[in-house]
Design brief:
GNAT_dom, Acyl_CoA_acyltransferase, N-acetyltransferase, globular, Aminopeptidase, eight-stranded mixed beta sheet, 5 helices
Length: 184
């Protein structure tokens, strides 16, 4: 089973659950309470729209416990002296890896929080998650060709451009070294 929480220096990454997504979609006044975090003014960010939320909820409902962690993740900026814990982005995998061990990631940071390296940290956390499963051998991502910031996030996390994808998207790939579990 994939871990459902991970930490980076400034972020807590929390796997989406049916309860969180149901609140986000149908009871938005309860969503920040369940999440335990403040929301940015422009939530939801980028491509993480209502259709994405509904898709993730469908996948979690259909896949049960084995689907948890293979879809949406919330990126929460840890509380500090300047701000409370705040939801700053979303990302995740497009599902479990295929038979070859390839999984696709996506990510988006709320406009209020861009330009602070949080997307880079979010992607680093997703890479850690992929490594921790022991199932992923390669990650892919497909940012828009006209989004150099998203491309830089991937490059900073060891991805390489390998060509074009559908539409105006590029294809990035990164090898994943699964975490080794100590025997003892």
């Amino acid at each position: 089973m994939i871990p459902l929480i991970t930490h980076t220096p400034r972020l807590l990454l929390l796997a989406a659950s049916r309860a969180l997504l149901t609140a986000e979609l149908h009871k938005p006044q309860y969503f920040p309470i369940l999440l335990g975090a403040a929301l940015p003014t422009d939530w939801p960010p980028g491509e993480y729209d209502r259709a994405a939320m509904e898709y993730i909820l469908e996948q979690l409902t259909a896949g049960g416990r084995t689907a948890a962690g293979w879809h949406g993740w919330y990126a929460l900026r840890k509380a500090d002296d300047t701000a409370p814990r705040t939801l700053v982005g979303a990302g995740g995998f497009m599902g479990p890896p295929d038979a070859a061990g390839t999984a696709e990631i996506n990510y988006s940071i709320a406009a209020d929080w861009r330009g602070q390296g949080l997307a880079t940290e979010l992607v680093a956390g997703l890479v850690q998650q992929a490594e921790a499963t022991g199932m992923v051998r390669q990650l892919t991502a497909h940012p828009d060709a006209d989004n150099p910031a998203a491309q830089q996030v991937l490059l900073r996390n060891g991805f390489q451009t390998v060509g074009s994808a559908a539409g105006s998207r590029l294809r990035f790939e990164r090898a994943v070294v699964p975490a080794v579990t100590a025997v003892g």
